[in-house]
Amino acid sequence: MSGSGPGRRGLLLSSLGLASAGLAGCGFRPVYGPEGGRNVAAANEPALQEQLASVRVAPIGERTGQVLRRSLQRQFEGLRPGTQARYDLVVGLSFQAEGLGYRRDGTLTRVRYVATGTWILATAAVPPVVVDRGTVRTFDDFNTPDLQFFAADASRDEMERRLLTEVSDRIVIGVAVALRRRMQA
Question: What is the pTM of this model?
Answer without folding.
Answer: 0.75
